[in-house]
Amino acid sequence: SQQGEEDPQALSIQEGENATMNCSYKTSINNLQWYRQNSGRGLVHLILIRSNEREKHSGRLRVTLDTSKKSSSLLITASRAADTASYFCATDHTGNQFYFGTGTSLTVIP
Amino acid sequence: EAGVTQSPTHLIKTRGQQATLRCSPISGHTSVYWYQQALGLGLQFLLWYDEGEERNRGNFPPRFSGRQFPNYSSELNVNALELEDSALYLCASSLALLAGGPDTQYFGPGTRLTVL
């Protein structure tokens, strides 16, 4: 399967701490994207990183990509209760189809 | 700018019936994607439409079908519903396919289909 796999499956942290989640994939990609989903609702796009990029920032989010290890990480700094959600990575291998993993469930405790 | 909209929000059907789900993409987006998110599973790619044509489909039986209209809105039809079709169905839209890959997909809120 080309689906990305997120790790850990679930993460629980205190407000103010940093949260790190990882995504691994199996075949080469065009780009990788991270999405957030709140309580079984639609997905919100967070950040896109292309295969020739190694790191991107957006506000409190930092994404890294290591194509040699076929992995990416999403770091959320200074977490807030509102960050509680499921986070998915989506890999684009062929330019027209995204593969999603099963997600990391993040709980931020106030 | 309005986002991707989907209707209905919830849909309850019985086994064997047909379900029709609708999606309106962001203005200017020509590509529409459908995904199924069953309980406890990740998003599974269903269908991709661009410029009115089906470009790709995931590993789903033929009773999952759809179409894209001239205004780029889309319908997903599920025939002969089975219990395991109960899921959240998400629609996403993006700009036209660009060299090197599609642009970011923007997701709608989803339609929750329950099959009894």
The arrangement of helices and strands of chain B along the chain is EEEEEEEEEEE
Number of strands of chain B: 11
User: Could you tell me the radius of gyration of chain B in angstroms?
Assistant: 14 Å
Largest sheet data of chain A? 6 strands, mixed
Q: Which term fits the overall shape of chain B? A: globular
Count of DSSP helices of chain B?
A: 0
> What would the principal axes of the Cα set say about the shape of chain A?
globular
Alpha-beta classification of chain B? mainly beta
| Portion in strands of chain A | over 45%
Q: What is the string of SSEs of chain A from the N terminus onward?
A: EEEEEEEEEEE
State the helical fraction of chain A. under 10%
Q: What's the mean pLDDT score of chain A?
A: 88
Name the helicity range of chain B. Answer: under 10%
Helix and strand composition category of chain A: mainly beta
What is the end-to-end distance of chain A? 37 Å
Summarize the structure.
The complex is a heterodimer of chains A (110) and B (116). With 110 residues, chain A is mainly β.
Task: Report what the structure shows.
The complex is a heterodimer of chains A (110) and B (116). With 110 residues, chain A is mostly beta strands. Chain B has 116 residues and is mainly beta. Helices cover 0% and strands 50% of the residues of chain B. Chain B is built from no helices and eleven strands. In chain B, the strands form two sheets. In chain B, strands 2, 4, 5, 6, 9, 10 and 11 form a seven-stranded mixed beta sheet that branches. A four-stranded antiparallel beta sheet of chain B has the order 1-3-8-7, with no helix packed on it. Chain B is globular and about 35 Å long. The mean pLDDT of chain B is 89. Chains A and B meet through strand 4, strand 5, strand 9 and strand 10 of A and strand 4, strand 5, strand 9 and strand 10 of B.
